[in-house]
Specification:
Length: 237
């Protein structure tokens, strides 16, 4: 006996946009704190932080710290860009967060956020400390609003701008945000092979205030089962 078809099209119960994903509360992204260590992941494997650039600009000490967190090369590279200060603040915030998480000076953190050597796309960014500790990170920005994610395994962030603020519009924006986040979370090297289901991913949404006008998804690779301890890709420690 066939199960009864749903009356109207609806998403599968396990679909992260409409099923359990809608039931799970979005993960908080507390404001980026520039001073104390920020290496907690809470109950999830990923650390999320947010930054509002206009708020930082109004706090001279904050923007100074953000801008002093970047390297001389980054400063030179953006010197001709009218958005220089904002790029520098975003970069400085990222370095500040990664430096705290890696136990290193922000400017000493080596960032690899260039194209993937396997597929040429931008995904699975990594940061390394001078002593070889390594973390994965992702950044998304919408106007003045920035979200950072740091994780021990490949992590991606995706951002979509809904076409309205009603619940349906917000729900529709989840899919492109989730797909973009998933693309960023694919480990380098794995992108060149067909997906075989051997890797599990955590898919969640980020708690963003309505005034930021965007939906942000975070996806990260979940640790493999203990019986395959040596099979993980590059990770920290
Ligand atoms: Zn790739």
């Amino acid at each position: 006996m066939r199960p009864q078809e749903p009356v109207s099209p609806r998403l599968p119960a396990t679909h992260p946009d409409g099923g359990w994903g809608a039931q799970r509360p979005p993960l908080p992204a507390p404001p980026l704190d520039l001073d104390p260590a920020q290496c907690d992941g809470g109950s999830t494997p990923v650390t999320l932080r947010s930054l509002v650039l206009s708020a930082s600009a109004s706090a001279p000490s904050g923007v100074r710290v953000l801008r002093t967190g970047i390297t001389a090369e980054e400063c030179d590279a953006w010197s001709a860009d009218p958005q220089e200060a904002r790029h520098q603040a975003v970069r400085g915030g990222l370095r500040s967060l990664l430096g705290a998480a890696l136990g290193a000076e922000p400017v000493a953190v080596a960032l690899d956020d260039g194209p993937c050597p396997y597929c040429g796309r931008l995904h699975d960014f990594t940061a390394a400390s001078p002593v070889g500790r390594r973390l994965h990170f992702a950044t998304v920005r919408h106007g003045d609003f920035v979200v950072y994610a740091v994780c021990r395994s490949p992590v991606g962030l995706g951002l979509a701008v809904p076409d309205g603020l009603d619940p349906d519009a917000l729900l529709r924006a989840r899919k492109p945000a989730r797909l973009a986040a998933h693309q960023g979370a694919v480990a380098r090297g794995r992108c060149s092979r067909p997906r075989d289901g051997s890797v599990e991913y955590m898919v969640r949404y980020v708690d963003t205030a309505p005034e930021h006008g965007c939906v942000v998804s975070v996806v990260c690779e979940l640790p493999r089962p203990a019986e395959h301890p040596g099979s993980r890709g590059p990770s920290t420690e």
